Structures are given as C-alpha cells and as structure tokens.
Amino acid sequence: MPSGDDEAKWSFDEQADYARSGASRTELTAAGTVVAIWVGISFHTSGLGYAIRTLAFHLLPLACIWKPEILGKAGLRFDPFVKMDQATPERVVRLAGWAWLFLPLLVMVTAKLIRWSAW
User: Is this entry keyworded Transmembrane helix (predicted)?
Assistant: First the structure.
C-alpha cells in the first residue's frame, strides 16, 4: 500500500487488475437481472422444479457474458484435425451469451405467432 500523500489518491478500483469499467458492470448487472426475471417467471408459472431448471439452463450464457475471456480460451473444436491456436474473441462469446439468454423469448414469440396464424 502506498504511504504519505499517495495514500489519499489510492483506491482498489483504480489499481486493481480485476477492475471493470462502468459499462461492463452495467452489462453484468443487466445479465443477472434478466436471469433473475426468467427464474422468477418460471417459479411463478410452474413452481420450484422448473425454476431450478431455468437457472441451470441460463448458467452457461451467464458465464459467457460474465467471463468471456475464460470461455473464449476454451474454444470449440468441430474438426479434430484442425489445431486451435487462437481464442474466440470476447465479443463473439458475449454476443452468443446474450443470444442464448433471450432464446426463451424468441420461442415464446414464435409460439404466439403460430397460434395467431392458426385462426
């Protein structure tokens, strides 16, 4: 820890390697809120069992949004003969997480459209 005059200027948020920007914290909070809403809707409509399943379904997309650098390094290999030497870009991992997070909304809208078109 710094001493003297530097102590007044020093803070954990500015000095730490793990510090995130305000936009990043907002994105993390928004993702957690979306998952909490999905779990709440599932609990209200179907009970505790489905709420736990909903939470389990949304853990991977939440991890994609919260820790894209770790999941990007894991990489997905579709061809066992191709060498993976680069990580997937963090933006791509984060975007895939958001798409998966809103997948139930897409399913619900599609089901409503199919029901309305059946008239």
Answer: yes
Q: For residue 10, give the DSSP letter.
A: -
First CA to last CA distance, the chain: 70
Between the alpha carbon of residue 73 and those of residues 19, 40, 56, 93, the distances in Å are: 20, 32, 22, 10
C-alpha distances (whole Å) from 104 to each of 24, 25, 69, 82, 117 are: 24, 24, 25, 33, 20
Per-residue pLDDT tens over the stretch 25-43: 888 999 999 999 999 999 9
Name residue, tokens 């809208």: 109
φ, ψ dihedrals at 104, nearest 5°: -60, -35
Could you tell me the pTM of the whole model? 0.68
CA 112 to chain centre: 26
pLDDT digits (tens, 9 = 90+) for 7-31: 555 555 555 555 566 677 888 999 9
| Residue the block writes with tokens 């007044």 | 8
